[in-house]
Design brief:
This protein is α/β, with parallel strands linked by helices. It has seven helices and five strands. It has one domain: Rossmann fold (3-Layer(aba) Sandwich), CATH 3.40.50. Helix content is 56%, strand content 12%. Helix 1 packs across helix 3 and helix 3 runs antiparallel to helix 4.
Length: 140
């Protein structure tokens, strides 16, 4: 099981650097060899990124999000405990609360976190060893 963020999901819909690795994670989820988990924040963040890309019509964005739901990623509700942990990460790591929610989810569940966000990885990986950069991902 792996926690992913929207930077990984977006690569399923927009061909970017490391999209092939992101798509392999998606395939592994579909084959149930690596179950993907994310806070429910994943859906609005992915939607926002697709909007901002200006590559899709409204109908295409809706279709992408429908596909995302159909993948049946295990979405975790953001509990009070999770948000409190995220606030600590945001404060101590100087990152957004949104990024911190993904970190808190992985930490709370004792799972590896995969992100394509190089800036986030650089800020946290030296002491949060469960954070992995998508470009360096190999099956764990």
């Amino acid at each position: 099981m792996l926690v992913i963020d929207a930077s990984v999901c977006v690569k399923w819909f927009i061909e970017e650097e490391n999209s092939k690795i992101a798509l392999s994670l998606k395939r592994s989820h579909l084959l149930e060899t690596n179950i993907l988990i994310a806070p429910d924040l994943l859906i609005p963040e992915t939607t926002s990124a697709l909007f901002k890309s200006n590559l899709f019509s409204l109908a295409e964005i809706k279709n992408c999000i429908r596909q995302l739901y159909e993948l049946d990623i295990n979405l975790v509700s953001i509990s009070s405990h999770l948000i409190m942990l995220a606030i600590e990460f945001a404060s101590t790591k100087s990152i957004s609360i949104y990024d911190a929610i993904y970190l808190a989810t992985a930490k709370e569940l004792g799972l590896h976190f995969i992100t394509a966000d190089k800036k986030l990885h650089t800020r946290v990986h030296h002491d949060l060893h469960f954070v992995n950069l998508l470009s360096e991902f190999t099956a764990l």
